[in-house]
Amino acid sequence: MNKKSLILNAFILTGASLLLRAAGMFFRIYLSNRIGAEGMGLYQLITSVYFLAIHLSSGGIGIAVTRMVAERPALYGKSARDVMRSALLFSLAASLLVMAILLVSADFIALHWLGDARAGLPLRILAPSLPFIAAAACFRGYLTARDRVLRTSVAQILEQIIRMAVTMALIPLLVPLGLAWGCGAIVIGTTVSEAASCLFLLAVSQMGTEKQKSSVRETGTLRELLYIGMPVTVRTCFRSVLSTMENAMIPKGLGKYGVSAQQSLAQYGMLKGMALPVLFFPSSFISSISSLLVSELASSPRSRRAGGAGGTGEAKGQDRAANELTRQVLRYALLFSFYVAALFLFFSGEIGMALYKEKAVGSMVRILAPLVPFMYLESIVDGMLTALDQQMSVMKYNMIDAVGRLFLVMLLLPRMGMNGFLLTMYASNLFTSLMCIIRLLWVTEIKLPLGEWLGKPLLSAAIGGFGARYLAISFLSSRLSPVLLLAAECGICGVLYGVCLLLQGAVSVREFIGPLRARLSRRKGKLVTIQR
What we know:
Blueprint lengths: L2 H55 L3 H11 L8 H34 L6 H7 L3 H16 L3 H26 L4 H27 L15 H37 L3 H20 L3 H15 L2 H4 L8 H44 L2 H10 L3 H16 L3 H26 L1 H27 L5 H27 L5 H23 L4 H23 L1
C-alpha cells in the first residue's frame, strides 16, 4: 500500500467511523430515553456475554486473513482463495458450535452468571448472528488487505442503518412488555443487521477478484491462520471471560456497598452504556489508522523478521520508512487525544446534560478524562504490535490486566462503590497502554522526545480549556443555547490549543503547507507537460 493509498483509505475509514460513531451515539441517546439507565445496564450485561461469544466464534481470524493476504506475495506464496477457504471453514465451524451452546445455556447464563433472568431471551435472539459475524470477519480482513476499504465502510454503514431502523420500529411495540423485551427489540435489530452486512460483504468480495483457480492446493494455510489468529483469539477470549465475570460482579459489588439492585444496575448502565461511549466517540478520527497499519506494517521487513535486526540495505530503508510512519501516527494521536481530554475535563457537565440530561454521566466523563490519551494510544499500538508479530506480548499484557481488574473489582467495589471501579479503570488502562507502548518502542527502536510530545501538548490543552471556559462564561453563556454554547466552547478550545502548540514549536505551519505545496507543484508540472 503506497502512501497516497494509505492516506486515502485513512480518510475513507475515518469518515465512515465518524459517521458510525455519530449514529451510534444518537442511537444510544434514543435507547437511554426509551429503556432508562436500568435498561442500559441490563443491555450492557447482555452484550458482555455476546462479545465473549463473538470472540470465541471469530477471534483473531480477521487480523489473520489481513496479514496472510497482505504478506502473501512476499512471504507465503499461498493464494487468497486458499486463505479465505480455510478461514471460512474454521470460523463457521467454531461459530456454529458457540451458537448451539448459547442457545441451550442462555437461561442458565442469565440466572447464574449475570444474576438477572431477564437476559435469557435476548441472548437466545443474538445466537443466530454468530455465524454471520464470523464469516463477515473473514471478508472484512480480505478486503482490507486488498486495499478495498470503501466496501467495508459501506457494509458497516448499511449494518448500522438496518440495526437502527429495525430496533426503532420494534421498541414501541416491545418495551411495554418489560425490560427483557425492550432489550429483545435491540438485539433483534443486531441479528438482522449482522446477517445483512455479511451477505453484502460476500457479494462485494466477489467483485474484481481473480477467477482462475490454482491447480495445486496450498497446504499449511490453516496452520498459518491459527499461528497468527490464535494468540489474538486466546487473548480476547480470556479477557472477555474475565470481563463478563467483572461486569456481572459490578452490580453485586455495588449492592454490598449498600446500593439497591435497581440503582446499581442504573449506575452500571450510566458508566458502560453512556459515559464510556462518549469518551471513545472522538477516537473515530484515529482508530481507523490502526486497521490500515496492520496491512502496512505487516508487509515491512521487520514484521517478517519478527522484530529482529539486520537485513539488506533495502530492507533497512523500508524499516526506517515504517518507523517514521509509526512515529508520526503516535505523535498526531497524542496531539489529538490531549485536545479531546481537555474538552472532557472542562466541559463534561455540559456534555452530560446535552446528550443524556444526566449530571452523573458528566461527572463520570470528567473523572475519566485524564485517561483519554492512554485509551486512544492503546487502541493504535495494539494493532501495530500485532502487525509486527508481537501478538504474544500483547496477549500476556492483556491477561495480566484482566486478572488484575477482576481482583480489584472484588476488593474495591464493596468498600468504595462506583469510585472503586473508576480507580480500577485507571490502574488497568495505565498498565496496558504503558506496557504496549514500551514494547512498541523496543521493537521498532524509535526514540520519542517525551518532553516535546507530552509537556507542550499538556500545557496547551490546559491553556485552551481554561481560556475557552473563561471566554464562554464571560461573553457567550447568556447569548447562546446550551448546545450552541458547548459547540462554541469546543471551537474556542481548539483554536487556543492550536495557537499554543504553534507558539511553543510543537507543530509548525510548514509541515501542513509543505505537502500541499508539493502536490500543487506536481500538478503544475503535469499541466506544463500537457501544454507542451
